[in-house]
Write a sequence for this structure.
């Protein structure tokens, strides 16, 4: 097992000290990263002491150390999961051959495109969440936000390491660009749509962690199958950290549902107005936020039929999550996959696509099934409380901006409708200006240890077995 060298300026388990050129290049990038963090990270809290976990090893047990840190002093480092001895290529045309320790020249630009896209999302999310700390519902939540922020910063380091170590001058230039594009910037936006959407309230934040970080899980799992072993190992370790981000999303939304149900019981009403008078999030409002973030996150998988996806699969660049255990056919040269597309006459038709071209859709299908799990749990809570309201994921055809369904008006069930009806009904499907205004009004900061905002129930337990009223952040 490799250990992490913390005496180095950049903690790492990649023996950076023995590659002076690479070390110098990364040490040159490091102050730029810190400047970016200062400008667009949660820097209004630079002097706060935050109870954070820091990676200290890469094995499943005991990989993290918990302690109080000021965020600018967080040790962002480069950690790759341990190599798997004699690992072979798990899919595509080179199936069964030894994995690569260097990027084959002919696949260089395809690899670079995916690594840059992955890398771009990490700082984007920190930028999106830049000001959330000011309206935290509790110190526990504030700490979780900061934990996520520092780890997304570390995930940026993970991709920058790969770019610097394996892509020469192009890689160094791309690493600079990762700090030059900004979420929502009109001239230099982030690459993928969702990462340019503002996250101005905690309901959006929890939806983002639930839906968008889950895309991260699926994409990282696919890249963890890559034939380029350093990329696969980097992504494997990133997944360890990613799990917490989805936990924050799922428990955050679950706690909102729990609090709403308490208020519904107290008010003896499920009328949204009555719930809002008590300062909670009515369930139809929550549903509209789910509609928004789920439909946006679906686009992150790309087009249903994609030549990029076919090429990256064939070339062993990007596989499917759990490729080895979940699938029998790892080559997919002759199989096909049925895709639903608009028939051009106002209906829907099924069309077979070569399996390799349909890989984005295969991933999106698996993602949707994974998203259902939380909804089942919350619906169970609602049912147990005696209400027959059901939270639902909208159809994967609803409000798409990428792929076969881009700009095709459908209702939440995915039925094709006219543009006029679509525009008219949209305010009932997505958060309206008044919904957002109401949610904004709830965002009052609560920073007394153990106290929660009125719109969210406390979590079941604190962080790392600490009590809930522990001062997870000392604001100083
Ligand atoms: N918005 O053939 P197509 C995470 C572009 S999240 C804007 O349809 P392809 C995280 C596409 O780039 C995981 N543009 O799709 C979560 C391409 O442009 P170029 C991030 C989009 O290439 C929370 C063109 O459309 N990781 O980690 O098969 C917090 C045609 O593309 C969008 C990855 O995404 C969109 N939604 O697949 C922090 C993994 N969708 O190149 C972090 C790496 C597509 O022609 N990326 N386009 O200019 C990939 O695997 C692929 O690039 C995609 C797209 C799956 C994104």
């Amino acid at each position: 097992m490799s250990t992490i060298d913390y005496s180095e300026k950049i903690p790492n388990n990649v023996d950076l000290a023995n590659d002076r050129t690479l070390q110098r290049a990364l040490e040159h990038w490091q102050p730029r990263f810190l400047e970016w963090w200062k400008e667009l990270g949660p820097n209004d809290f630079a002097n706060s002491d935050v109870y954070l976990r820091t990676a200290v090893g890469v094995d499943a047990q005991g990989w993290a150390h918990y302690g109080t840190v000021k965020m600018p002093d967080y040790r962002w480092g480069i950690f790759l999961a341990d190599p798997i001895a004699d690992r072979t290529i798990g899919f595509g045309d080179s199936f069964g051959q030894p994995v690569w320790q260097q990027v084959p020249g002919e696949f260089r630009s395809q690899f670079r495109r995916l690594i840059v896209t992955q890398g771009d999302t990490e700082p984007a999310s920190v930028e999106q969440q830049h000001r959330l700390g000011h309206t935290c519902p509790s110190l526990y939540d504030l700490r979780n936000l900061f934990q996520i922020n520092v780890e997304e910063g570390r995930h940026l380091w993970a991709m920058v390491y790969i770019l610097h170590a394996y892509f020469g001058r192009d890689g160094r230039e791309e690493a600079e660009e990762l700090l030059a594009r900004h979420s929502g910037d009109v001239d230099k936006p982030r690459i993928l749509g969702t990462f340019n959407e503002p996250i101005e309230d905690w309901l959006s934040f929890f939806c983002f962690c639930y839906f968008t970080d889950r895309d991260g899980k699926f994409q990282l799992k696919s890249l963890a199958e890559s034939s380029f072993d350093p990329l696969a190992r980097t992504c494997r370790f990133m997944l360890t950290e990613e799990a917490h981000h989805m936990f924050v999303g799922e428990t955050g939304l679950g706690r909102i549902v729990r609090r709403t149900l308490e208020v519904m019981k107290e008010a003896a009403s499920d009328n949204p107005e009555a719930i809002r008078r008590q300062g909670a999030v009515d369930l139809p409002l929550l549903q509209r936020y789910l509609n928004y973030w789920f439909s946006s996150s679906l686009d992150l998988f790309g087009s249903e039929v994609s030549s990029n996806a076919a090429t990256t699969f064939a070339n062993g660049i990007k596989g499917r999550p759990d490729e080895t255990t979940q699938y029998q056919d790892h080559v997919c040269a002759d199989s096909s996959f049925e895709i639903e597309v608009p028939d051009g006459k106002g209906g829907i038709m099924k069309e077979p696509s070569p399996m390799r071209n349909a890989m984005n859709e295969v991933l999106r299908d698996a993602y949707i099934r994974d998203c259902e799990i939380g909804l089942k749990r919350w619906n169970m809570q609602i049912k147990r409380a005696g209400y027959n309201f059901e939270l639902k994921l909208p159809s994967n055809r609803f409000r798409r901006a990428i792929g076969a369904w881009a700009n095709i008006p459908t209702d939440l069930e995915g039925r094709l409708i006219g543009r006029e009806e679509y525009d008219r009904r949209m305010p009932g499907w997505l958060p309206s200006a008044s919904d957002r205004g109401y949610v904004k009004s709830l965002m009052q900061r609560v920073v007394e240890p153990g106290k929660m905002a009125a719109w969210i129930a406390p979590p079941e337990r604190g962080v790392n077995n600490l009590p809930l009223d522990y001062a997870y952040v000392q604001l100083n």
